[in-house]
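My current task is to audit a protein record that another person submitted. Thanks in advance; the entry in question is below:
***
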Amino acid sequence: MDREVTAAVVGLGRIGRTHAEILTRRVSNVTVKYVADIYLNDEMRKWAGKLGIENVVKDPDICFADMEVDAVYICTSTDTHSEYIVKAARAGKHIFCEKPLDSDLARLGRALREVVAAGVLFQTGFMRRFDRNHSKARRLIQSGDYGKAQMIRISCRDTRQSPYEYLKVSGGIFFDMMIHDFDMVRFLSGSDAEEIYAAGGVYVDERLAGIPDVDTAAAVIHMKNGMMAVIDNGRQCWYGHDQRSEIFCTDGTIQVMNEREDTVVVKKGDGIVYPKPPDFFIERYYDAYIAENQSFADSILYGTPVPVTASDGVEPIRMAKAAQMSLEQRRPVKLCEISESEKARQGCTDSET
């Protein structure tokens, strides 16, 4: 009989449900024994029943206490991540944690030291690294066939703004949205950031100013290896989820363009119409979510290296903090200015994977 991973998913928002559905239907050798949410309701129970998940609980501690559970997927709000990381590590569970790991780097550092002490696997949920297009772009950069990479440009614009109640606790655009782009800059460049200058404004929903947050932002980043990166984000885009990347090299340019809803192109005398991008980022990156989950299961079962480590989760948080400081103080911020950083970095070394 094939070996299996017994998993629990904690947090049943849209990301938690996406992971549970993929683990149940699309990933081999994984059984979801539990789903848990402290705000459990009848609708969640009905949803879990359709997936055939029998154990639907309100208390996540039930998942940590069950000796049959091998791995826990932490998909709760960011401010609870460190608490659940500690509980899972002390219970000897392998841990998959969605981004951002925490906005408090000192607290995160303490949690990650528990992971190292327990000797369990830890993977950070940056699904874009598993996207076939961005993975190919990285291979092309590393090949050297296009010369030296000089600059990375990334645009990410959501179809519609997330609910206001969510945005009030999201940590702001740099933690909630641009953090994926910070990770992608590191992934494509093979380098950490040295300095960030960020700017932003409120153009769509004036309520965001009271959080405070912005709905449109940009960042210019100097990497330690000499490369530059430019990122722009928008919380609302009327034509679909617009996410494109470009790597400008000395001997060529590599572009990752939008996926399309279909491949039908209509041509008439008054113009040419192409299909728009998908409406939702989960649609765009669904296959990447599958690959991400399969990879974590394979690491548990077969000992393959975890491809997105705790360190990979910490560095984009440092970048988000630097960007937020830059926005507030209207100046470039060096990453070494983020005073909590060393505490977190001490808590995560490559030894935990």
The radius of gyration is 20 Å. The chain has a mean pLDDT of 94. Residues 5-128+288-307+341-352 form a domain with the Rossmann fold fold (CATH 3.40.50.720).
